[in-house]
Structure formats: structure tokens, C-alpha cells
Amino acid sequence: MSTAAAIGTIDRPQTHDPMKQAPMPHRFLASTEPHGSAASTDFSHTGVNDSRQNRTREMQLQPEALARAHMHERLREADAEREAVRLVTARRMQRRAERASLRARRALAMAVMH
User: Fewer CB within 10 Å, N side or C side of the chain?
Assistant: First the structure.
């Protein structure tokens, strides 16, 4: 037994995203009934809905934030590794230059002595 509900009704909303849904018309919010009667239900809990939506949005964005933090950490590790490789290469070249300088000094001393 299926009921054919029109798109855009409570049973079949056009969108499930609360931010894209149409706001409640003012004629439904303002009632001529006394404040406490069953007919004067106030549906304008915007603070509660906003906090729920923010909490839901934060929960949905947590995996993305975690992935972003992991990527940031991997980039930092890669930068540190590149810096370490650069330092090792610079020290190796410095030792090579010192040995070449020492060879040149010895060669000059041998040339002066002869």
C-alpha cells in the first residue's frame, strides 16, 4: 500500500539539506491562539536548529579535517627530510672542498720546495 506523495511535501522533500529548504512562512509561525494552547506551537527554534546544523556540519567535516591534518604532517615530514638530505650533501661537499684545498696546498708547497 503505497501513497503517492508529491515532491516537495514532508514525505518527499525536494532536498534533505536544511540550508536549501524554504523557510517556514510567517503565517504559520504567528498564531492568533493563546500562548500555551496546542495550536500555538512555535516552530522558530532557529538557535537550536543552527547549532544542530553546525554540529552536523562539523561532524561531516571531521574526516576532511583529519585528512588535511595528516597531509600537513606528511608535507612537514617531507620538508624535514629534504632539509636533512640538503645538509648531508652540503657537509659532504664541504669535506670534498677541504680535501681539494689541502691537496692544492701540498702541491704548492712541493712546487716551492723544488
Answer: N
Residue bearing the bigger pLDDT, 90 or 57 = 90
Report the alpha-carbon distance of residue 97 to residue 95 in Å, rounded.
Answer: 5
Tell me the DSSP string of the chain: ----PPTTSSSS-S-S-TTTSPPPPHHHH--SS-TTSTT------HHHHHHHHHHHHHHHHHHHHHHHHHHHHHHHHHHHHHHHHHHHHHHHHHHHHHHHHHHHHHHHHHHHH-
- 54 near 48, Cβ under 8 Å? no
Cβ pair 11, 3 in contact under 8 A: yes
Cβ proximity of 58 and 50 under 8 Å? no
